[in-house]
Write a structure and sequence with these properties.
By secondary structure, the protein is of the alpha/beta class. The protein has a single domain, classed as HUPs (Rossmann fold, 3-Layer(aba) Sandwich), CATH 3.40.50. The chain is built from six helices and five strands; from the N terminus they run βαβαααβαβαβ. Helix 5 runs parallel beside helix 6. The radius of gyration is 14 Å and the shape is globular. The mean pLDDT is 86. Pfam families: Usp (PF00582). This is UspA domain protein. Belongs to the universal stress protein A family.
């Protein structure tokens, strides 16, 4: 029986689809939405800004605020409460590292733009390969 579901989310439509699927497929499970803020690099100014903040955890949670608000709206449509988490790191690695706390991971197949599809599709594939639990990829 599946009682704990992890749903990694970004701002994409696919991530929202994954969350809706998690509610539909696992109506009695506890749903945790996680947003991973990428590792700082010269190409990811927002992640670098968060990592250099006086309180990176608070800065990361503020960065994820709109995303979590949207996840809460979707949860309210299903009359369910969710838990939210934010972490800093490589998205695939972070999800894989926390996967053993859950019974299943439900993830969107990719994001919107071509660059995002290449990157996030690759992330989804890495999560499928490395997760400690089954992974459902939603299209």
């Amino acid at each position: 029986m599946i009682s704990r579901v992890l749903v990694p989310m970004d701002e994409s439509e696919m991530a929202e689809r994954a969350l809706r699927y998690a509610f539909d497929a696992h109506p009695n499970a506890e749903i945790t939405v996680v947003h991973v803020v990428g590792e700082p690099s010269s190409m990811m100014g927002g992640a670098t800004e968060i990592a250099l903040a006086d309180d990176p955890e608070t800065a990361a949670r503020e960065h994820a605020g709109d995303l979590f608000d949207r996840a809460e709206e979707i949860a309210a449509e299903h009359d369910v409460a969710i838990e939210t988490r934010v972490t800093i790191g490589h998205p695939a690695r972070a999800v894989i590292n926390m996967s053993d706390e859950f019974d299943v991971v439900v993830i969107g197949s990719h994001s919107g733009s071509l660059a995002d599809r290449l990157l996030v599709g690759n992330i989804a594939e890495k999560i499928v390969r490395g997760s400690a639990v089954p992974v459902t990829v939603v299209r």
